[in-house]
Every structure is written in structure tokens, then in C-alpha cells.
């Protein structure tokens, strides 16, 4: 790939004004245009549009002269020179290329003009936010799920990274014409949620001067004490602590995402899958298909080789994996989307050797 023209480089000539990806995209577009344009002149002729190894040779090189010489019983030199004459007489070629030369033994080399590149950049700025729009994904709906942190504590730097990555990916897909639904999956079911509720409950008791044993496995952060103080002031009863805590932490996550400029079309609660019976339905389907076996009081998913994964624990509760299976099934069966895409989700597939 040749270096950028002088007007796109800074004063020392080393660091380009535009990044390499932009330059590569220009090359791809022009190569495609060249291929179609030349093919219109020479029907049923197979040839390549190449990029010379040395920028001094030009930006593009066409090997069609060899093909025509063999086809017409002439020499590559004769065919190449006639091609140059034809290209120079074409206004579309002369508007784009500052030089068009035949190079022995049979190549036609073309070099983009600086005026054309300058005008191309003006077009980019003139198009503004519409630059790069595409209909490549027209008619295709994608469900893009990202961040999806447990609502048990403040979002982390890692969550922020996933948010910026997922939101950017969604914007790129929309730019390409896809209909994108951005989704945040709220993991509001399971052991960690119970620990959150218990942590707040015990801190509320401490505010009442009651003596409690606060285990090391509970949530230790100052935010737990803040929530406990708020709940105590509102006289939230113990049986409502879990639901209220989930609501508070979810709102905090929404606030953090909004501060980052990241918005979601849907905040999907894992608890919905249980309330609707989708988790049990997904498990029953696996049973009916012969994918489940029992061992040590638990119910396991048969996997490849000698691996297995617990879906129902010995106490009868579903594992994270079973919930994730139901969630994925929900996305695939949803009529709204054709493709479910999960960004930066932890792969929760616990297994052990048989």
C-alpha cells in the first residue's frame, strides 16, 4: 500500500492526517469502481486490479493487457497502449487519475490525482453524519445484549468498557442498515441477589443497634450501608428488601449508562424467564430430547466427550447455565430479531470430568 499523498500528511511526512483504515477503505472503493468500469469496456474478459508494491509505480495496476493479447493474438504492449489511450479519453478516468501509463511487459498503472482525493474528503465533510451509511443490513433485525452486570453493586471499569464496546458496535450495525435493539440483561435471580438482600437486611439491623454477624462472603461496600440507611428511613419491610434493592441498583446502572451516553432499548429481567415458565419449559424440552441425566441428586446436561454441566442443583434450584439457556432460547424464538448477539457476557458453563 502506497503512502498517503503529501496534502494528507503532517509536516514531517510520517504521521498521516487520516488513519490507515480510511485510506484502505478508499482503495477498496476505487478498486471496485475500476473493476466495474473496465469490465464495461472489455466484456467477458477476466482480469485483476492490483495495488503495486511500490507507490512510485502508481496506486493501481491492471493486468488486462495480457488477457487481451492472448485472446486477440496480439502483444501485451499493443493492447496495453490502446487501453491507456481509451482511459485517457474517458472523462471519468481523467477526473480520478493524474497519470495513466503503460509499463512493460503488460501492465497499465494508474495514479490518483491529488485534486480527486481533496474533493473526496470535502464530500466526507459535506455528508456529515450520513457519511458511511449503508443498506447492507436492510431488513435484518439484531438483538445486541451487553454490559448486563449483576445488580449487586456499582458498575465497574470493566462494565464501562463493555458498554462503550457494545454501544459502538450497535451504532456501526445501525450505520450498516441493520435494525438493532440494544438490551441490558438484569441478572436479578440467584445466590448473589440473595446475598445482596441479606447484606442490606443485616446493615438495617445494625442501624437499630442490633448485634449481627456480618459474614465475609456478604457485600462489604459502603453503598450497602447507604441503601440500608435509605430503606430504614422509608421503613421498608424485610420481605420487600430484595425487590427494592434490585430496583435501586438497576436505577443506579441506568444512571451510570446515561452518564456515559449509552442507552438501551430494553432492560430485560432474568426473573421474567422464571415467572413466565420459560426456564422450566426449556429444561423440559432438553429432558424430552434425551439431553439430561441424573447424578448425585442433581440433573446434568450431557456435553461433548466426558464433560457435563449441572442444570438443576440437588436442592431443586436452577443453575445460572440453565437460566442462560432459557434466555438464549427466548432470543432465538423471538419474532422481533433474526440474530441475538451477546457482547462481553461471561460464559457460565460449569462442568467437571465424569
Helix content: 40-55%
Shape: elongated
Overall mean pLDDT stands at 87
Q: How far is the N terminus from the C terminus?
A: 54 Å
Number of domains: 2
Strand order of the largest sheet: 1-2-4-3
Count of DSSP-assigned helices: 12
The main pleated sheet reads as: 4 strands, antiparallel
Give the total of beta strands: 12
- Output the radius of gyration: 31 Å
Protein topology:
Elements: H1 20-41, E1 49-50, E2 60-62, H2 64-72, H3 76-88, H4 91-96, E3 97-103, E4 107-112, H5 114-127, E5 141-146, H6 157-175, E6 179-186, H7 191-207, H8 222-234, H9 241-259, E7 266-269, H10 270-275, H11 278-288, E8 292-295, E9 298-302, E10 307-312, H12 320-333, E11 339-343, E12 352-353
Parallel strand pairs: 5-6, 5-11, 6-7
Antiparallel strand pairs: 1-2, 2-4, 3-4, 8-9, 9-10, 10-12
Helix pairs in contact: 2-3, 7-8, 7-9, 11-12
Can you describe this structure?
The structure is a single chain. The protein has 354 residues and is an alpha/beta fold. The chain has two domains: 6-130, Gyrase A, domain 2, CATH 3.30.1360; 141-353, HUPs (Rossmann fold, 3-Layer(aba) Sandwich), CATH 3.40.50.620. The chain has helices at 20-41, 64-72, 76-88, 91-96, 114-127, 157-175, 191-207, 222-234, 241-259, 270-275, 278-288, 320-333, and strands spanning 49-50, 60-62, 97-103, 107-112, 141-146, 179-186, 266-269, 292-295, 298-302, 307-312, 339-343, 352-353. β5 (141-146), α6 (157-175) and β6 (179-186) form a beta-alpha-beta unit. α7 crosses α9 (241-259) and α11 packs across α12 (320-333). The radius of gyration is 31 Å and the shape is elongated. The two termini are 54 Å apart. The model is unreliable at 1-21 and 346-354 (pLDDT under 50).
Amino acid at each position: 500500500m502506497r503512502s498517503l499523498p503529501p496534502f494528507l500528511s503532517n509536516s514531517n511526512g510520517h504521521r498521516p492526517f487520516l488513519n490507515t483504515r480510511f485510506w484502505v477503505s478508499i482503495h477498496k472503493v476505487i478498486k471496485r469502481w475500476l473493476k466495474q468500469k473496465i469490465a464495461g469496456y472489455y466484456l467477458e474478459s477476466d482480469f485483476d486490479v492490483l495495488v503495486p508494491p511500490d507507490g512510485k509505480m502508481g496506486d493501481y495496476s491492471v493486468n488486462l493487457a495480457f488477457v487481451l493479447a492472448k485472446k486477440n493474438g496480439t502483444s501485451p504492449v499493443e493492447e496495453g497502449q490502446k487501453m491507456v489511450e481509451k482511459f485517457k479519453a474517458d472523462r471519468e478516468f481523467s477526473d480520478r487519475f493524474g497519470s495513466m501509463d503503460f509499463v512493460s511487459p503488460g501492465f497499465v498503472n494508474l495514479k490518483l490525482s491529488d485534486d480527486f482525493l481533496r474533493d473526496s474528503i470535502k464530500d466526507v465533510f459535506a455528508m456529515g453524519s450520513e457519511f458511511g451509511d449503508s443498506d447492507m443490513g436492510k431488513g435484518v433485525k439484531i438483538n445486541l445484549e451487553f454490559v448486563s452486570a449483576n445488580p449487586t453493586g456499582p458498575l465497574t471499569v470493566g462494565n464501562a468498557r463493555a458498554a462503550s464496546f457494545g454501544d459502538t458496535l450497535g451504532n456501526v450495525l445501525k450505520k450498516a442498515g441493520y435494525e438493532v435493539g440494544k438490551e441490558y440483561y438484569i441478572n436479578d435471580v440467584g445466590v448473589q441477589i440473595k446475598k445482596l438482600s441479606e447484606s442490606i437486611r443485616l446493615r438495617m439491623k445494625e442501624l437499630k443497634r442490633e448485634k449481627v454477624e456480618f459474614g465475609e462472603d456478604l457485600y462489604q461496600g459502603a453503598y450497602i450501608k447507604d441503601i440500608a440507611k435509605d430503606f430504614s428511613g422509608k421503613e421498608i419491610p424485610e420481605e420487600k428488601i430484595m425487590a427494592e434493592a434490585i430496583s435501586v441498583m438497576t436505577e443506579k446502572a441506568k444512571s451510570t449508562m446515561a452518564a456515559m451516553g449509552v442507552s438501551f432499548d430494553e432492560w430485560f429481567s432474568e426473573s421474567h424467564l422464571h415467572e413466565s415458565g420459560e426456564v422450566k419449559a426449556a429444561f423440559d424440552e432438553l429432558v424430552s430430547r434425551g439431553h439430561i441425566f441424573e447424578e448425585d441428586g442433581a440433573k446434568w446436561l450431557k456435553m461433548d466427550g466426558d464433560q457435563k454441566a449441572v442444570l438443576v442443583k440437588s436442592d431443586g434450584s436452577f443453575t445460572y447455565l440453565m437460566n442462560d439457556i432459557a434466555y438464549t432460547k427466548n432470543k432465538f424464538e423471538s419474532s422481533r430479531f433474526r440474530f441475538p448477539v451477546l457482547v462481553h457476557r461471561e460464559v457460565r458453563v460449569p462442568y467437571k470430568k465424569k
